[in-house]
Amino acid sequence: MYQSDKIKMQLQCPMPKLDFDVITLGHGSGGILTNKLLDSGVFNILSNPILDERHDGAFINLESKTAFSTDSFLVSPIFFPGGNIGELAINGTVNDLAMCGAIPKHLSLSFIIEEGLKMSEFWEILVSIKFACEKSGVQIVTGDTKVVEKGKGDKIFINTSGIGSIHPKANINAKNINIGDKIILSGNIASHGMAIMSVREGLEFESQIQSDTINLNHTIINLIEKFGSDIHLVTDPTRGGVATVLNEIAKQINLGIEIFQKDFPIEQQVASACELLGLDPLYVANEGLFLSFVSENIAENLLQELQNDENGINAKIIGSVVKNHPKQVVLESNIGGKRVVSMLPGEQLPRIC
């Protein structure tokens, strides 16, 4: 469904005829070429009343408690199975806002483009940005475009910042986590990281590993609407994976976390790819998952609700918060042994998002 919707969007947004095929330094000069690039691309495809003002910034009314987030994206390659850097940038910031219990509304969008980028590639990225914005319900309201010399970048880097109103029922804070809280993982781990690595390493499987990049805001807001303050923390395990995020939380709350290997959802070919490359899937980046720490008494109901959502079909309860071994994450293996799962010591997969 999601992939077919993206293809439909691309057919609805054909690239206009232009007098240039690649982006040059002149397109970042602020002059005629810059205006041609922006008029034929950014302003045309992302048009909305606020962006169309073309001011130095955006005028926005903030009527309630607001969340703000920013992120930069330099994934390599910029096109990968299941997505590209454009939709990754939108989904990444939308999801960061959602993890705060916010309803994402407005985003800024800035490009740093290396001269020589094909206009057809830039257009495909813009179409994916438009699709991701429409699916998540946000608007691009301001931004910036710069061009750097050949060899001074890597095709394109993107920065997005976003704001959103906190849902009135949300109370997302690690300080709310209690002993006995259950930890729920929304879906299969390591898909994004291994989709990137399979391209880099030229790995072939029976079916292509797809990135899990997706917006999660509608899913999370639905859960907050139903379960409110019984959801103590929501966070997305991107760089560093599930293991690193759990370690950060354990240290922050000064309590222990116990997780169970048998309960971790993972696609078989993703697990095989990790084994082939000598990678632990617990440390591999994800882009369409979230971890939630919830009151024990609502955990099963929340899990059932999540499994009825398209973004949580494979959700599982993977562990709980305990008094023992404070500040540590302990994994019980499939054969019953236990080991401490430490934080990622270095960069396992560079340029992953």
Automatic annotation (TrEMBL):
Report the InterPro entries cross-referenced here: HypE (IPR011854), PurM-like_C_dom (IPR010918), PurM-like_C_sf (IPR036676), PurM-like_N (IPR016188), PurM-like_N_sf (IPR036921)
Q: Which GO terms describe its biological process?
A: protein maturation
Lineage: superkingdom:
Bacteria
Q: Which organism is it from?
A: Polaribacter marinus
Q: Where is the PurM-like N-terminal domain?
A: 56-165
Question: Which Pfam family, any one of them, does this sequence belong to?
Answer: AIRS
In the record, the note on similarity to other proteins reads: Belongs to the HypE family.
Locate the PurM-like C-terminal domain: which residues? 179-327
Q: What is this protein called?
A: Hydrogenase expression/formation protein HypE
